[in-house]
Backbone:
């Protein structure tokens, strides 16, 4: 049964480009006169900002956008390990030219609330994390700054709320008909949220995306990524494919 489901997902992958890339554009408020996105990624493992968040997973996306404003729902659900955290995120974002700003509500089934209740927002008992981001896309490169404002954030060296932050520089390029992106991400100060004692490089990544042509009218968009977290001394290789309508 699992093999049949996997084959069906692979067949559906021919419907479009990387849903993961689509999510990133939506989260920073992709400029559009009108847009609806229904998509999903199937990944070999879930690596986020240099952190290992679980094994093989399906990650669906539902988004709408209008004139630079976008609202996106995104999730991640483990396909192999039932102990992997379930995640449900909501992002409201806006962009004007290269400038973008946004607010994301991350929710996990595990956290401060052992019962995993979605509608529990107590400051010291919630599984939600509220994060703001601001950035600019120069075309040849982009930079984004993210800061946790409230919720289940980490603490600093003094045991106080860290307002955990992360800054990322991304550079897209193309080589031999393959779309590439290089990423450098860092945590500027100490926080238990990212496991840092101060400034640290936590994400070095190189990703390639390409449509694999099967027939004249059918292709499978696949991607592969090599990522490393120098701070944690970890390295990862991730691959997957996308489904998009």
Residues:
């Amino acid at each position: 049964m699992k093999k049949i489901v996997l084959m069906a997902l692979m067949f559906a992958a021919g419907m479009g480009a990387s849903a993961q890339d689509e999510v990133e554009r939506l989260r920073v408020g992709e400029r559009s006169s009108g847009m609806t996105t229904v998509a999903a990624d199937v990944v070999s493992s879930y690596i986020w900002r240099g952190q290992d968040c679980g094994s093989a997973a399906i990650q669906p996306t539902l988004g709408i956008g209008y004139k630079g404003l976008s609202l996106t729902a995104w999730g991640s659900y483990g396909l192999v390990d039932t102990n992997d955290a379930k995640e449900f995120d909501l992002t409201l974002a806006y962009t004007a030219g290269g400038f973008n700003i946004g607010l994301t509500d991350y929710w996990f089934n595990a956290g401060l609330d052992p019962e995993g209740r979605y509608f529990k927002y107590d400051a010291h008992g919630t599984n939600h994390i509220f994060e703001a981001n601001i950035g600019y896309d120069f075309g040849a490169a982009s930079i984004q700054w993210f800061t946790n404002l409230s919720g289940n954030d980490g603490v600093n060296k003094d045991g106080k709320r860290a307002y955990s932050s992360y800054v990322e520089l991304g550079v897209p390029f193309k080589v031999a008909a393959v779309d590439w992106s290089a990423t450098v991400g860092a945590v500027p100060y100490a926080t238990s949220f990212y496991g840092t004692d101060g400034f640290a490089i936590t994400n070095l990544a190189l990703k390639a995306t390409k449509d694999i042509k099967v027939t004249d009218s059918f292709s499978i968009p696949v991607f592969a990524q090599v990522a490393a977290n120098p701070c944690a001394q970890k390295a990862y290789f991730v691959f997957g494919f996308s489904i998009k309508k």
